[in-house]
Amino acid sequence: MDEDKWRALAPEDDRPRVSVAAPESPGRHAADPEPVPSTKIRTAGTLSHAALLLSPLLGGFFLALMALELAKQGEREVGESEGFLLGAGQIPHIRRRAKTALGITAVAAAVALSVLVLVLLRVWLGGGAEYGDNTV
């Protein structure tokens, strides 16, 4: 009887019927949210790129530290999210870039410090031999 009722309400065209029910996948509830990329991991990736670019100028040090910290927090959040946050595969690359930036920054700081020490030694110890005004 219900079928006759639905046929009476249905349009009389031959269009295929589209199901409005969401397809259910095994192991996932229909009310579960869709997986999304982790914003902390995306931010850590951006910071690690900026740190790598600014590391020769010593500005990449703090950016690399922030990238490492955000990557650690993002990794923890991805693990706790039970699959609803994505991006764990990017964490090794982020860490590698941030550690490379820290290494480049350390080398740049060592070079800058060496140049500073040499300049100060030259000023304090004198500029070398002085020969007077009437030498040829």
Automatic annotation (TrEMBL):
Keywords: Membrane, Transmembrane, Transmembrane helix. This is Uncharacterized protein. The chain crosses the membrane at residues 47-68, 101-125. It comes from the Bacteria. Residues 1-17 have a biased composition (Basic and acidic residues). The keyword Membrane applies. Residues 1-39 are annotated as: Disordered.
